[in-house]
Please model this.
Amino acid sequence: MDSQNKTILKYLQKHKKGITSIEAFQKFDITRLSGRIHDLRAMGYSIETIDCMALKEDGRKVRYGRYVLRG
Model:
């Protein structure tokens, strides 16, 4: 298993709230979290994508995904 995949899997196992792409970049310098999630799913891990929305200071709505390990 790739070291980035291991890093994300360990994080998901420890943090039940999951992780976003921004968090993955800030914590681990991982720029393609969706690719790591794809790899983990292909290995049989059940990872749910939760759709989230945030309101920016200028009033714009921004959508993003939070990945959560299930099972």
